[in-house]
Amino acid sequence: MSKNLVIVESPAKAKTIQKYLGKDFEVKSSFGHIRDLPKKGMGIDLATFSPDYEVSADKKKLVTELKAAVKKADMVWLASDEDREGEAIAWHLADELKLKPENRKRIVFHEITKNAILKAIDNPRDIDQNLVNAQQARRVLDRIVGFEMSPVLWKKVKPGLSAGRVQSVAVRLIVEREKEIREFVPRASFKVDGVFLNTTNQEIAAKLKKDFDKEQDAEKFLDLAKTVEFKVLNVETKPGTRSASAPFTTSTLQQEASSRLGYNVTTTMRLAQRLYEEGYITYMRTDSVNLSQEAIEGAKKQITSEYGAEYSSPRNYTTKSSSAQEAHEAIRPTDFGVKSIGDVQLNKLYQLIYRRTLASQMANAKIEKTVIEIGDVKLPQNFEAQGEVIIFDGFLKAYGIVKTEEDDEENNEKLLPKVKVGETLDYKRITATEKFTRPSARYTEAGLVRKLEELGIGRPSTYAPTIQTIQNREYVDKREIEPQTREVVKISLTKDKIKKEILEEKFGGDKNKFVPTDIGEVVNDFLTDNFKEILDYGFTARVEESFDEIASGDQKWKQMMTDFYSKFHPRIEDVEENADRATGDRLLGTDPKTGKNVHARIGRFGAMIQIGETDDEEKPVFASLMVGQNIATITLNEALELFKLPFDLSEVDGQPVSVGVGRFGPYVKWGETYISIPKGEDPLSVDQKRAEEIINEKKIADAPIATYKGEPVTKGSGRFGPFIKYKDIFVNVPKRYDFENLSQSDINELIDAKLEKEANRYIQQWEKEKISIENGRWGPFIKFGKAMFKIPKKKDDSKYDAEELKEVSLDEVKKWITDQDKNAFAEKKKPAAKKTAAAKKTTTAKKPAAKKPAAKK
User: Residue 393: phi, psi to the nearest 5?
Assistant: First the structure.
């Protein structure tokens, strides 16, 4: 029996720590938080701001196991992470497991190594209540904001929406950037580039130091350039240095992993978590750039042995953020002797962290920068060529150079040939090209993290979940923006001849950048109009500062909540009572056929176009927007085109064919089968021939690939990945199978396993009533429609086993359901009655989604 029980958050962490502790220690995992605010209801007493925590259903069995382990141990060591979240996990464990102060110890460490774990055991402390309270304040404030603002959105915008303190501010950043891009008016100017040749015919690329606003001025300059003798007017060589960046914080790791590896923030944090839990790196949620003396010494030793003493330059960095915890460290390797690890994906991130940390302790790179001025006294402006050469690579030896999205893509500095002042140069060509100014770039994930950090919004642990949430809520997405085309003028001077060309260039296209959705824009506009303070960047940052003050013991968390709620709740009541509904309504013009107004707005089923007014005698007609269209930018002509959909074509194989657009984009409907039209293809251009091609492609894709017990088996790919289909059963195909070359034995194996699983799923099933008793992960349960219900205990307080449940009658099961939900069966009847009573209203509401009335006209 182990005298000591150590509790950590994750099984991977438990496994690693267990290796370092002797047989007197047992390490168990809490799998994160064991309790939280309830999923249903606010779970907060608004008079006292006391949270009503509960053990989540999926953790009850685990808590029972932990309580049993606690009884057997003399001492319980709470070893969750040393941040506010980790401190709160330790506090919840201590409270729920009824741990007494004399029988518990709190230990913390920044890396999972033997030395760090043993040192932590030698230096225990108690739970830091200030850190716990800071986490409680964040959790409670965010729950209140979400629970009180979201119903206002349901009432004033659209049911099912949500708001949040940090997520709504993140959406605001993306919406404001998009509006800035829309309103941006590009300004044209002519940039002049020249390629010159020295006496040995080596090329020197140079740029004119002034741009021209007008085409005639650029042409006039080129005309003048024909007549001059270009000379080297000046050569200036200056020494310079480049310094390494500080070691990684959570934010900078997310940004660099995006730039260099193409990882999104969620992937980066998942991989970093694994690296930490397996003992390869220090704690990955930190805003400190500090390194321990031990780490500095370790890096120095590695640099000296690998690159030489001249490359070593030990230093420590200071964190700019006043709230950063300098006791924490930057993200770094735990052992500089480990240069790589086996897992390919983990190794990519590990290598990035390893090289960045080494580089931070290396000497500056020494460079020599050369600037050559080229011109003639007759010219109003001179050319300038810039180049540089690395004299000593220093930290670049380990880390290299990476350009950021802000870097000027045209500023490619290079090595220049040797020239002397006064030397005559020939021009090879001089080109004046029309260039347009560009708006600010849309946010990438890394860019959004950088901006949130810059504004002081959120903390290292919040960036990844915030970015995931705003995408899950469908307020923003990363859809591809198709580029537009414009004409540009290019004037070239070659061999004393001037040539003018009109070229086409693409602009405004984007991939993998955040774009707000229609509903995201409408929600943002409503919130910024009605909750200015909550959406204010400064306010959100000040809230973070309050959490920091609570963590340091300088502010009482319930007092902070009282101050916040006294201003917040009256605003909620005022907006709910007095604010207008928000639909993002935009009047596009009038329909030439009917003379009625054409509106773009948010409706019950999302973004749509409406012809006519809701209070007109003749009901309005509706059409859904296509993917890539936006109510803020769609034109009247584009809107009217949508009413040509859906349209009918001739039958194929006796089945009706039509072309339309739905929530998943444009489609060809063949009988009851919906077939997506390929991305980028205009549905209005689909004629009979093209529709038949699309249908034939679908037939080939859906053709049986094999049979199982005489029945055809087909395959496809869905939202959960590749699958095969047998009868009405969909079977996911795991990655270990070669999906493109499935053998008959593979298919038999997959379907056999699925059928066996399905056979074991039901203990009893009443299909007509849509009621079943099923085996679940945590034991048997009742399913009624989509709802799940618990199976009560028997009279002697024991649980039913599967054999006993096979004998339970349907009436008994219905009673169990009714005991948990009195209206379970009554609710099934209500919709039918309501539908009949409001048939006219329901029909009108549903017409917009189908758009069939519009098509018939």
Answer: -75, -25
User: Do the strands 54-55 and 35-36 form a parallel or antiparallel pair, or are they unpaired?
Assistant: antiparallel
pLDDT surpassing 80 at residue 844: no
- 10 Å CB burial of residue 748 (0-12, 13-18, 19+) is middle
Predicted confidence band of residue 855 (pLDDT cuts 50, 70, 90): very low
pLDDT in tens, 435-469: 999 999 999 998 999 999 888 887 777 888 899 99
pLDDT at residue 835, as a whole number: 37
pLDDT tens figures, 251-276: 999 999 998 898 989 899 999 999 99
Element (H, E) at 353: helix 344-360
Report, as residue numbers or ranges, the catalytic residues: 283
Residue 799 β-bridge partners: none
Task: Find tokens 């741990």 and name the residue.
Answer: 99
The whole-angstrom separation of Cα 196 and Cα 373 is 12
Q: Other C-beta atoms within 10 Å of 276: how many?
A: 24
Q: Determine how β-strand 771-776 pairs with β-strand 762-766.
A: antiparallel
Longest dimension (CA), the chain: 108
Note the pTM of the prediction, 2 decimals: 0.76
Please state, in angstroms and rounded to a whole number, the distance separating the CA atoms of residues 143 and 721. Answer: 34
Element (H, E) at 850: helix 839-850
What is the DSSP secondary-structure string of 128-177? -HHHHHHHHHHHHHHHHHHHHHHHHHHHHT-TT----HHHHHHHHHHHHH
Question: Is 233 buried (19+), middle (13-18) or exposed (0-12) by CB count in 10 A?
Answer: middle
Q: What is the pLDDT of residues 74-88, one digit of tens each?
A: 999 999 988 888 899
Give all domains of the chain, ordered by start, each with its CATH number: 4-127 (3.40.50.140), 188-243+366-438+479-507 (2.70.20.10), 250-363 (1.10.290.10), 586-644 (no CATH), 647-702 (no CATH), 706-760 (no CATH), 762-820 (no CATH)
Contact by Cβ (8 Å): 176, 185: no
Among 134, 90, 129, residue whose Cα is nearest residue 108: 90
Rounded Cα gap, residues 636 and 792, in angstroms: 60
